[in-house]
Design goal:
Elements (H helix, E strand, L loop, with lengths): L20 H8 L3 E5 L2 E4 L1 H20 L3 E2 L5 E3 H7 L1 H4 L5 E4 L5 E4 L4 H11 L8 E10 L14 E11 L2 H21 L4 E5 L9 E8 L5 E6 L14 H12 L4 E2 L5 H7 L5 E16 L9 E4 L2 E4 L1 E8 H12 E2 L4 E2 L10 E5 L7 H15 L4 E3 L6 H11 L3 E5 L7 E6 L5 E4 H11 L1
Helix pairs in contact: 1-9, 2-6, 2-9, 6-7
The structure holds one RNA strand of 77 nucleotides.
RNA sequence: CGGGGCGUAGCGCAGCCUGGUAGCGCAUCUGGUUUGGGACCAGAGGGUCGUAGGUUCAAAUCCUACCGCCCCGACCA
């Protein structure tokens, strides 16, 4: 894309309403535009990043055998009355009436809906396990939305649901998602730590939150430094391998606020390893057995006997991850954002010094730009006549991982190429393509 | 929902106390000179001052109500 044509309404000043760096940066880069409290439009730059995150989440769900579906945003109150949550969920649920005066709601989560779909379709234990997920907008009517897309009312989320015949099988499904989440966050270059967590209104007795450490996070956490060294690279979705992975993590005390116990913490974690800090919740997995299947009568035939299925649910905040990655990768002091290559809005930027009276640099830049494009490298070329220093500051803020600078002294054969925030090297265009492709 | 604050150009703000018909910086447009970490000169465009009502010869400014947004707290996959 040419910078002169692309819709990136960039600002020089921070809007006053933004208090944390991800919110500030997203507004300055024109990634999002607030529509009302806690509700945002996604503009091209932000949308591109979110879609890349979504693709990674999807690939890692498919990789453990989960199947993608799409459920509606608007749900009927009927099924929520069946599960008992129509009353329990409270003011956070946005309730709507349609023209026939039927009670509807904008879904904050989908346990009831998926259970309804399941019970109508699956009748035999032989069809189990079933792992289903969708990626859809959710609405929770937060009392006080804040921090931009980090704590908003409308948000984009991947939620998955598992159905099994026994507790043992259900635990296997749970562990598959556990692994899937470790892989997902790793691909975004985030270290997300699993923490034993409270189950809240979802219910159940087994739950983990996946947390990224950040001062601006809203979750208080207590963990053991050594948990960062747990290696799950060789874990497969086989039962033994997954059990080992869970054991490796469970050796270390790692909990959120609600589960915290000072005595156990001090007992299990030597002082030098203790971490008490704040973090951002980017994923949450739950096992809740028959909490929904029983009241909603979701059962299968098992050796001539009716068995309620054992369920779990698994969420990833796709839109929240955009903010979480910024919190982790943005150096606010130096105004340099470093998108992980896997989610960066573009692969490479071309930053030329241009002069209206001398088109040679523009021609050279266009040549490079077209060459990169033909090699399937998503490139943005700044074809404006801003000063070169203004362009460099601007592109540091935008955060595309690779930059090609075309200055006054640039020659025809080699180009100034750099990884954002690092020192430049003079390289041939073929070498540049190779480096970018190897880092994708 | 309790407490506090704010709504004036795309963004950041001044003007309001003491009423007289709207201003600054950045951004935008035109022309020119520039160019290695957010350049300079000259010119230009852009606002029913959140909305409604009231007081007044006259309201961004005073009064009333409403709406919206932000912050702290409580709450929260």
């Amino acid at each position: 894309m040419l910078f002169s044509k692309v819709f990136i309404p960039i600002l020089k000043n921070d809007p006053t309403e933004a208090k944390i760096k991800s919110h500030k940066l997203m507004l300055r880069l024109g990634m999002i535009k607030q529509s009302s409290a806690g509700i945002y439009s996604w503009l091209p730059l932000g949308f591109k990043v979110m879609k890349k995150i979504e693709d990674i989440v999807r690939e890692e769900q498919n990789r453990i055998g989960a199947q993608e579906i799409l459920m509606p945003t608007i749900q009927s109150s009927e099924i929520w009355k069946e599960s008992g949550r129509y009353e329990d969920y409270g003011e956070e649920m946005l309730r709507i009436k349609d023209r026939q005066n039927r009670e509807m709601l904008y879904g904050p989560t989908n346990e009831e809906l998926i259970t309804d779909i399941f019970r109508n379709s699956i009748k035999s234990y032989k069809s189990l396990p079933q792992l289903l997920y969708h990626i859809q907008w959710k609405f929770r009517d937060e009392l006080r939305p804040r921090f931009g897309i980090m704590r908003c009312r409308e948000f984009y989320m991947k939620d998955a649901y598992s159905f099994d015949i026994s507790d043992d099988d259900a635990l296997l499904s749970y562990n598959k998602f556990f692994l899937s989440y470790l892989r997902t966050f790793k691909r975004m270059e985030l270290s997300a730590i699993p923490m034993a967590a409270d189950t809240g209104p979802i219910g159940g007795n087994l739950s983990h939150e996946f947390i990224i450490l950040a001062d601006t996070g809203e979750s208080k956490i207590y963990t053991d430094k050594r948990i960062f060294d747990v290696d799950s690279n060789l874990t497969t979705i086989e039962k033994n391998s997954l059990d080992k992975m869970r054991n490796d993590f469970e050796k270390f005390y790692s909990v959120t606020d609600e589960k915290f116990d000072q005595k156990i913490f001090e007992n299990k974690v030597p002082e030098k390893y203790r971490i008490k800090t704040k973090g951002i919740e980017v994923g949450h997995i739950f096992y809740f057995g028959d909490k929904y299947s029983k009241p909603m009568n979701a059962s299968v035939d098992f050796n001539g006997k009716k068995e309620f299925v054992k369920m779990g649910s698994y969420g990833v905040g796709v839109s929240r991850l955009v903010g979480a990655i910024i919190e982790a990768k943005y150096d606010e002091k130096n105004e340099i954002m470093k998108w992980p290559t896997s989610v960066s809005p573009y692969d490479c930027s071309v930053i030329p010094l241009l002069n209206k009276n001398d088109k040679s640099n523009l021609e050279k830049s266009m040549k490079i730009y077209n060459f990169l494009k033909n090699n399937k490298i998503d490139t943005i070329l700044d074809d404006t006549y801003e000063s070169i220093s203004a362009k460099m500051k601007k592109f540091n803020l935008i955060g595309i991982p690779f930059q090609i600078i075309i200055g006054k002294k640039s020659d025809e054969e080699t180009f100034e190429f750099k990884k954002i925030g690092e020192e430049p090297k003079k390289l041939k265009i073929e070498e540049i393509v190779k480096i970018i492709k190897n880092n994708k």
